[in-house]
Design goal:
The chain has 209 residues and is mainly β. The protein has helices at residues 104-109, 172-177; strands at 8-10, 32-35, 42-43, 55-62, 68-81, 84-93, 100-103, 112-117, 120-125, 131-137, 143-145, 148-153, 185-187, 191-193, 195-198, 207-208. The chain contains two helices and 16 strands. The chain is globular, with a radius of gyration of 17 Å. The termini are far apart.
Length: 209
Amino acid sequence: MQISPNPKILLNSTLLKSMDQLKEYPISDVKVISDGGSAVHCVSTVELLVPDSVREEPTILEFGDGRTLETKYCGTLLLKTPSGNVHLKNTIVIPGCPCIIISEPLFDLAGVMINKGNGKISFTRDTDGEVVMSGRLTRNKQYEMAVQPVRVQSVKTIAHNGNSSPEKDLSFCESLIWPIGSIVDYGWSRAQRLLTMSSKETEFADVHF
């Protein structure tokens, strides 16, 4: 039986053009940037994905400099917005990615209209005209979104405190997110926090892409 090769995707990112940009970045400094060219949504670590959604799906990404990288994991990224939650499926983990990259082309294909002007950006659903999320142009000429990545706990509750330790029966995904603790810093226009929710608490989320 012939084994199919891993799929290859041209990243085409306007932000992440070279593998030389990949390095260790503090998760506390994570920013969510809208990318007009990226073919996929990207995060730097599985710690930023919904644990029960993480799956192993090797993919080869080709960067603008012609070099390729094989990624291993993907899953659902949950973003908290002023109007609710946004679930981004099939988000690819690129170790060392400098920020959370959301793909404008994927939103376009999902029926979301993207408007830019006067240093602002907004994502509006075609069906009802509701603004899904918005952002602003930074000094680096990048559109930083006014959203918060949410660290979702698995169905098994992980109550992190200084006197506790992971149980031996934690799932693989749970063991990966344990070291981060329950809350870490998140940088936007003012001091905010990376939110933590249980799986059940996210059931009210109403926007999936």
